[in-house]
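SUBJECT: A protein chain and its fold
Encoding: whole-number codes for local backbone shapes
Chain under study, with its fold:
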Amino acid sequence: MGKSKLHMHPATHLLMKKSKIIIEDGTLKVGIAYGKYGGSGIDPNRDNCRIHLNNSVLHIYGDVSLYPGCRIIANNAEVIIRNGTRINAPTYIIAEKKIEIGENCLISFNVTIRDNDGHQHGNAESTTEYKVHEVVIKNNSWIGQDVILLKGVTVGNGAVISAGSLIFKDVPDYAMVGNHSIVLKENIRWKE
């Protein structure tokens, strides 16, 4: 096993209760790396990262960057992020079971990824339920700005989700999807 490191901006708000961060063979950069615009408009002291874990595990494989302003909130859950993935601010990852993000994924500004409803609901004739279903984002996916990814979704390898989309159904491999998970293009390839 190689060396593992955690580089965290001093303004990062880390709250852990019966939880752990595991880094395998790489480096987790929290609030110190910047994306394409080199930190323009971002103040890591003000736009600090927040990692709040309650009885949860944040498992990092390889080199991962959480840009200033990212939020990871996990309660009785596991969040897995794999090598080469970069997550922009102010992305929210909200887990109550499991959220897994593959290798070399790019997650743009103001994305929300959640594996739960956040509340109970039902109709007048039934009891209310609190639904939680894991989310999987496979390798080499690009999640556009202002995307909301809801519980139970699997995003396929190499997929692109267009900016402003609400995603509540699975996304096929190498597809570009828009709002409401509608496939816009198939057999795509993207690069930064």
Observations:
- Residues 5-126 form one domain.
- The radius of gyration is 16 Å.
